[in-house]
Amino acid sequence: AVLEPRSNTMRQGVHRDTLGPSLALADATYVFAPPDIGWDVEAALGGLGERARVYHSHEALIADLATDARPGDHILIMSNGGFAGLHRRLLAAHGKTGLAPQRLRDPKFATQPVRRRHHLRPARRGRGAGGCGPSTGHLTGRGGA
Fold first, then answer.
1. Torsion angle (degrees, nearest 10) of CA 72, 78, 84, 86
2. At residue 40, what are phi and psi to the nearest 5 degrees?
3. Which terminus of the chain, N or C, has fewer Cβ atoms within 10 Å?
C-alpha cells in the first residue's frame, strides 16, 4: 500500500488513529509525510513495525518502491493528487524489468469511454434527501421527481 495523505482530513490528522489499523493487512506500506503535515505519521503507523516506511521525499519513496516491487505484486496507490508522477515513474522503472501493470495486460481493462450515470443536482427544499430529513438545498446524487 502506498499513501500520500493529501486530503484536508488526512492532513489535519482526522484519521491518524485509524490509519495504522486500516493498513494492517498490507505486506508493506510506503507513506509520504510532507513537512507541513502537522501530526506524527511515524507514531500513527508504529503498530505496523517494519512493514511501514515513512518518507519525507517523493524521490526516495519512488526509488524504494521501484526496487522492492516484484512481478505479481499488487500495488495500491492512494492519493488525491498526482503523487509527484509516481504512477508514471513506477511504470517507467518497471518497463525495464518486464513488469507491466495489470491494466495493460488484461483485456477487461481496455480503455473505454466513461459514461456518467449519476449527476449531482440540488435537492428540492422540503423533501428528504436520502432519509436525512428536510433538505436545505445541498447537492445529492438523487435527482428527485
1. 10
2. -85, 100
3. C
Helix (H, G, I), strand (E, B) or coil at 77: strand
Q: What are phi and psi of 137, to 5 degrees?
A: 90, 15
Q: How far is 143 from 94, CA to CA, in rounded Å?
A: 45
CA distances from 23 to 31, 43, 112 (A): 11, 14, 31
| Residue 76 scores a pLDDT above 70 | yes
Q: What is the pTM of this model?
A: 0.65
- Taking only the tens place, the pLDDT of each residue in 99-115 is 455 554 445 544 444 44
Task: Supply the angle between the helices 86-95 and 58-68 in degrees, to the nearest 10.
Answer: 40
Asked if 25 and 51 count as a contact pair (C-beta separation under 8 A), the reply is no
pLDDT tens by residue, 5-49: 988 888 889 989 999 999 999 999 999 999 889 899 999 999 999
| Residue at grid coordinates 488484461 | 106
